[in-house]
Design goal:
3 domains
Length: about 800
Amino acid sequence: MLRFWFRERVFSVVKYCISPFIRFEVEFEEGISEKDLNKVKTIYALPDKSISELVALDKYTNKLNAPSPKEYFEETNLQRYIRLIPPKYNIGEQKIKRFLPQNLPEILTLEDDEVILVPVSFYWGIHPDKQRSFFKIVFSQSWAVSGSFKKFFRVLLHGRSLVIKFNKPFILSELKERDRTVEESSRLISRYLRALFRKTKKAAIGPDISHRRTLVRSLARDKVVREEIKVQSNGDLKRTRKLNKKAFKYANEICSDINYPIVRNLQRGLGWFWNKRYDGIQIQNLDKIKSIADENGLIYVPCHRSHIDYLAFSYILLEKGLMLPHVAAGNNMNLPILGTIGKGGGAFFMRRSFASNKLYSLIFFQYFKRLLQRGSSVEFFPEGGRSRSGFSLQARPGLLSMTIRSFASLSNENVKLIPIYIGYEKIIEGNSYLSELLGEQKKRESFLDVFKSIKDFRNFLGSVYINFGDPIDLKDFLESELGEKNYKINSPLDRPSWLKKATNNLGTEVMKGINESAVVTTSSLFSLSLLTETTQTLDSNSISKRIEMFIDLLKKNDDYKDVWLTEESPKKVIAKTEALGLINSQLIGGERVFRPTRNEAALLSFYQNNISHYYLLYSLICLSLKYVEKLSEEEIIRLTNLVYPFLQSDVYLPWKGEQINKVIAKNLKTLIKSGLIVKKDKGLLSKPEKNGKEYRDFWALSNISEPSIKRFYIVMSTLWKEEGTDVVELQQRCVAIANKLQQIEGWLYTEFSDASKFQFFITKLLEDRYIKENTSNKLSASRITQRVQKEFQQFFNQEFMHEVNQLNLRE
């Protein structure tokens, strides 16, 4: 009795002393709300024997007028909480001794089937905006065991940045059986709660990464790795020792080395950067990721536009209480000092190409597999390098194939890929992209490019936008791909026949998810409105109306009802773009006129290309009417459907098969209602009357898809004229013709400037059998393309086709 009285007095004194230091935010997991805390038979489960956490919970329940954990349960002398007690290592017995949770055995003896247990998690100091010193960072939440001293300073330093999370409750009787003793039931519930608290903590701050040395050694000594060393050494003891050292070196080179003080300091520094140099990071759809984070291994696959993509993404995950991901980075980023900081922040470095190095491949694969096995979050850029054109690039197969093989060799079936769009109102590398946007040869990736862009930090950079796409369940995807076939494999060396196709299709699904999540920013909307004008010159009134037209078309399209439109006021769109320094207006005849220089137009095209896919179908419909007087609705749908397959994979549009006819018809009706296509006699359709606003808007819309159709015509006309060329020669000839066309027309086509666009396009035409390749690797056009050759001419004017034919003859 005296002991109980003394304990209560201690609690009261501690509560009085530390309550002023505690401020908290409260989160409720799906399946629980504030109402559940008011139930009569509620008991709280706490993860640790911490008086400060008990004080915080007591403070919140008192504020809510809900039963306090310190209150007695019904007519017993038991308080309304149980606490897990950490195990201790018994030196004498050389084993770990575990303890039953405080109060749990006594509560189980009540044999009340209606007792509800509510697990409660506590996170101290996970908000970097409230951390102003290295000292605070040292005492923030981590996996290290916390003694009384550390807990005391944690309350002092982080008491005002506490998050209390209520997890989904369960009925206590569901976890106990009649034939079990109270002690057995207590141990079962204890194991369940430990697993739950560990999972929620891992989702918030990441897995326990305190055993990196052990991981490096285990990778170097992995069974599969040892077998490969045995094969390569061929019994030579000296070579075996050399390969063992090499394996350890590879493992040490690859593994990340997450260091929480580094992470928290980076978080603090990045908080300043995003809020001072940028207007902050805006996010959407994070809630649907939070709802699956506890139960799934997450692989984040964002688009890649800037070197600072991974900084923005890692920062926002930490800010929002999600696990820090392990980020795949090229080893060109593994520079002295910066490489150490990168590894401390979660980066693991990989060589650009290692297919020929079997030992390195095995160790990298085993490391990637371990990350998934441990439930770590992983992040990699499916496009490989940054897109300098603003278009989404083709997904590289390397890490996607490794993801599939790792998953197929594990028993874990809860892995989801999350496509993510990261967009900027102004990218810091804009000036360094100019040369490539203007058609010069692509430069090799280098981390030093960031330092070349530092001068842009002084300027206004606008906002950053991160939009989370719909998760792709890897199990569902593989089952859909393979049907009834078993996708499980036994070894990382296994490369089943279905792997290549599944990898390519997964890459397509990821890129579709990214494009569907693209954000319509002020700079992209302004750029699209200006650059689609034939003269690329508009006064302020005309561009305002053009912006309104593009916004209106987006809103009228049900397929794009969830598209994130950051600004709807044309005046604000124009003002923001000017403030970003992307263009300057000129005063001509009392009117503000926007007329970009060649460099400005090239850079604006980057932002235009971010969102042009949203308007591609509208554009194809207008293009089918551009060079003819009238067409029937059926003919427009047929012609649009004719060219759609050639462009679908290029911009990752989602519609297939019979879907597309309905979508085209729906888009056509929208254009008619908007006055951009006009109904004539006998049900025929035509473009608007010349010199009107609608006519200029119609022409602007058609200009969006015209470069893509021209690219197709350049490729096919080259083959139609002269068969018997190989892939490399065809690509080189097409790029040469495209560059000369730009010079002749005086129009900047960023699609022509990017040689990889032609490469990908030719590859897809081969895969879809629009182009045939014989045993001598010589190409020819398929019968399908030869049949539609005449109909494709309807999409171009005679001057363009004549110029392409002449250039083909010269080449």
